[in-house]
């Protein structure tokens, strides 16, 4: 896992939904939200999505764990999230920025091994070099072994929940080291899809 930092008070946020494809979706979503330790992040859930804000490592830790617990239901489950840093005016939850960096949900047991497919996209805002930033992070995913091809408007990552979320976090943390002032990353992660993966 990357140990990069992003300045002293750079709040990271993620707005996401999980979609477990079962009649029992209310139970799966609510149980996943309840199973996770959210003590180090600002969190708000409504009828459409959940928003988490705080230090980068906790935002990734909590979103990964919520998806893992939902996917542990065994049903086809989708995580659809938008991560952001540097959003002008995002200071409300600065209190969470003084938490230490120990991850509260590091241990997600066997769920870390659940196989997933992901499509993610980086949007480095406020820089002319945005394509360089994107290519660098695609290269990083290739080196890690999660990169599974380019599709229109996104890059594909295949691998376990732990590998894929590690790649997402790595891409995000490295991309914000660029001169981009505001970075957005979208990610759709799928587990237990009944559809066959496309041939590479
Ligand atoms: C992470 C996450 N947060 C909120 C929703 C929205 N949502 C849809 S059904 C349901 C449970 C009963 O209201 C909720 C909260 C979601 N899908 N995923």
UniProtKB/TrEMBL annotation:
GO terms for molecular function: thiamine binding. It holds the Pfam family Ykof. Residues 11-90, 116-195 form the Thiamin/hydroxymethyl pyrimidine-binding YkoF putative domain. Thiamine binds at residues 18, 50. InterPro entries: HMP/thiamine-bd (IPR015835), MTH1187/YkoF-like (IPR029756), Thiamin/HMP-bd_put_YkoF (IPR011522). It comes from the Bacteria. SUPFAM superfamilies: MTH1187/YkoF-like. This is Thiamine-binding protein. It comes from Paenibacillus glucanolyticus.
């Amino acid at each position: 896992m990357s140990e990069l930092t992003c300045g002293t008070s750079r709040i990271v946020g993620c707005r996401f939904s999980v979609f477990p494809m079962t009649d029992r979706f209310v139970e799966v979503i609510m149980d996943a939200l309840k199973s996770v330790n959210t003590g180090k992040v600002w969190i708000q859930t409504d009828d459409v999505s959940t928003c988490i804000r705080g230090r980068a490592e906790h935002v990734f830790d909590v979103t990964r764990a919520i998806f893992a617990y939902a996917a542990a239901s065994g049903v086809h489950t989708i995580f659809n999230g938008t991560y952001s840093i540097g959003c002008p005016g995002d200071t409300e939850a600065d209190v969470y920025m003084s938490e230490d960096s120990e991850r509260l949900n590091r241990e997600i047991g066997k769920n870390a091994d659940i196989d997933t497919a992901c499509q993610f996209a980086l949007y480095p805002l406020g820089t002319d070099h945005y394509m360089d930033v994107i290519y660098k992070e695609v290269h990083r995913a290739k080196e890690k072994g999660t990169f599974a091809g380019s599709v229109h408007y996104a890059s594909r990552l295949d691998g376990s929940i732990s590998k894929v979320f590690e790649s997402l976090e790595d891409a995000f943390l490295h991309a914000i080291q660029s001169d981009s002032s505001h970075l957005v990353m979208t990610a759709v992660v799928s587990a237990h899809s009944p559809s066959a993966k496309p041939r590479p």
